[in-house]
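User: Hi! Is it possible to get a structure for several chains at once, not just one? Here's what I have:
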Amino acid sequence: MENMHETDVLVVGGGGAACFAAVHAKRMGAETTLVCKGRVGKSGATVLAGAGIQMDGKSACEMGYPGDSESTKEKLFREIVLEGFYLNNQRLVEVFCRDAAARIKELLHWGLRAEFSPPGSFGMPGIELARACSEGVKTHDVELVEDTMITDILLHKGKVAGAVGIDINSGEFVLFKAKAVVLGTGGWHQAYPFTTGSNELTGDGQAAAYGAGAELINMEMVTYCPNILLSPPMHRGSILPIILAMFTEAKMLNNKGADIMKYYDPKIVEIAETTEFNKNIWSIASAREIMAGRGTPHGGIWVSMKHLPLQIFDTVEKRWFQKEELDLWRQLKEGYAVEVAPAAHYFDGGVAINENCETNVPGLYAAGECSSGTFGANRVCDATTEMVVLGGVAGRCAGEYAKRKKAWDMDPQHVEAIQRKRIAPLEREQGLSPIEMRKKIQQIADGSVGVIRSGSNLNKAIEELERVRVMELPKLCVAEKSRKYNVEWIESVEVENMLLCVEASAKSALMRTESRGVHYRTDHLNMDNVNWQKEIVVKEENGKMQLGTRPVIMTIMEPLRAPMTWEQYITWVVPPLKELGVGK
Amino acid sequence: MMAEKTIKVKVQRFNASSEKEPRFQTYQVPLTSGTSVMNILDFIFRNLDSTLAYYTHTTCYRGKCGRCTLIVNGKASLACQTSVTSDITVETPKRFQVVRDLVYFKP
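Assistant: Yes, the chains can be modeled jointly so their relative placement is included. Here is the combined structure:
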């Protein structure tokens, strides 16, 4: 094997979670290698983040910022659990609130240029946040291996021994011998036909962890962001329309020009306009129109600002727009509508971790969006805070673990088997293209684990996913046989990862016979607090995907008892959130 | 949406292990308005020729990451933020070593 790295802690990813994990592992005195699918600071979800990063207002005041001292860690904790529909692991929420200020202080120390806004938030473009994270890595003597995709985790008697990856430029395998592995690889955005996530987000961490015997939880929870630009192709995925809809009374219209919110209870409409449940309510309302055949030519809805006086346009802050997005801005100002739709945005579930970011596999850690994280069934607070906090915890704990443990030898037979499997699509003379399979997976995901779910759609999807896995996956074949930067070959690994994530998601969604958070089922509109304040656990056992449940860890806030519908919950939860200072 | 017209896209192809010099391959691509160079390369890869190598495995499409920089009609451009209205030629910057086709080792 030509490419071999030996390290204590191998961190996988290139965004905030991975950067913080690498820095904190290194600080524990562990030799640390950061392996990134792209370039550190230029890839991962962080680059495209909105972005704000938050701590409690009281801590911000203590740091000398004009925060709100009434906004305490305890309030932030309550906010996250109320917004997460009580599915949050409360120990992890405690960690989020505890560590946010310290991690943000580090970012500022690394030169983060951000603007403070009360109670305790810092705003900046995502690319600036990514730059600051990579600055941290640069100043900590971490070995960097870039443009390298980790495909598999290596074990020795059930404990982490290292990982196998592919150098995307050369197409050569790279072997990492490591005592601990931290996954910070983000979500599986690309399994959806319409997403705000960048190209590399293909569930690589979740799939590698699952393959190593780790548990995945809350996989059915996929947060959508409504009002994302669908067309023209060049600006597809732009968040401009949702920003406009949040700051002005922009209208959402169907293909006939009817206001899509006019059918809803005024109370729900008001909640959408005044709280962060706008993501949920507007996504559901948009998806209903699209599913009923009242969508636009590209399968979305219209956002129009024609009814607004021109002066209102001047009040909108334009400095974070892309130069090219100003064209869209002008279009809206002239009275034209733009086509938008809800886009797969954030993955609330993922690799199951405890408050030390440990998985059930000794030596394997996960952090950020790739992990099950802090947000339960619905995310409102900043994913950026989660990534830096959990990244820090994962790095610290993995570093400490690596110092106590010896390195295991990797099993050469296992390595060879992995390589044979990965090379197979290159060696087949004929078969099925990963390009077609990706399209198929996206269609299935969109139709089953999208904004609105139903038992019948999920059953159909699962049958199809199982067929694709058993019948089609073993026949993947790529046209180009050179291993050098072979896009289709890399996609052959990615489609397998995405297939796994969508299958786990669909099976979990079918099992959860209720509506909670971003999981909205037309055949189960009740939020079943008697039976479903539980996590759904997905795990491989004897070569099969097995599902189980376990109670949610609740340390401070008691479980809910009352039966209610999804709509009743969000109506019920708004006043207590307002008491916490959340909402308009 | 219906294509408004068809354009010729001249793309640099090169595999150092079997070729001495880069060559150009021309694809006919349907063009709709508001299409970027990146959208065109995606179209070629996904519909016409899956052997094409272009930097796509970690790209943001929003002009933020800067990793899709190519020479378009002789000018250094971000592929994802450069709109296409007529025939184009796409190649790598001359001073960098080519990995394959449109992918080069970036500093």
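Chain A has 17 helices and 22 strands. The mean pLDDT of chain A is 95.

User: Great, thank you!
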